[in-house]
Design a protein that fits this description.
The longest helix has 28 residues. The chain is mainly alpha-helical. The chain is elongated, with a radius of gyration of 20 Å. The termini are far apart. 75% of the residues lie in helices and 0% in strands. The N terminus is likely disordered. The chain has one domain.
Length: 97
């Protein structure tokens, strides 16, 4: 009985940090290179970082406990960031075509 209780307690205690980490806000937004001077490798790297950031933010917003207004604000900021990167990609592509 004591072993079962100890095992259950240990499982709960070890499971808490994992659950808390699963819903942590991603770090800072990645930097968007200047599309007028950036090299292809820089844009590819930025593309991968932006995709990872957007995915991490979407996961965070899916599990974060925030009010509807706060969540809408975060989604709006994320959409603006994605649009800014898409604009940079367009400038970069027009420069290199």
């Amino acid at each position: 009985m004591k072993k079962t209780l100890l095992l259950c307690s240990l499982t709960v205690v070890l499971g808490l940090p994992t659950g808390a980490l699963a819903c942590s806000e991603p770090g800072a937004k990645p930097e968007i290179p200047d599309p007028t001077t950036a090299e292809t490798a820089q844009m590819v790297k930025a593309n991968n970082e932006v995709k990872a950031y957007v995915k991490a933010m979407e996961e965070y917003l899916g599990c974060a406990r925030m009010s509807g207004g706060a969540k809408r604000d975060e989604i709006s900021k994320l959409e603006e960031f994605a649009a800014e990167f898409n604009d940079a990609i367009k400038v970069f592509k027009s420069r290199n075509s």
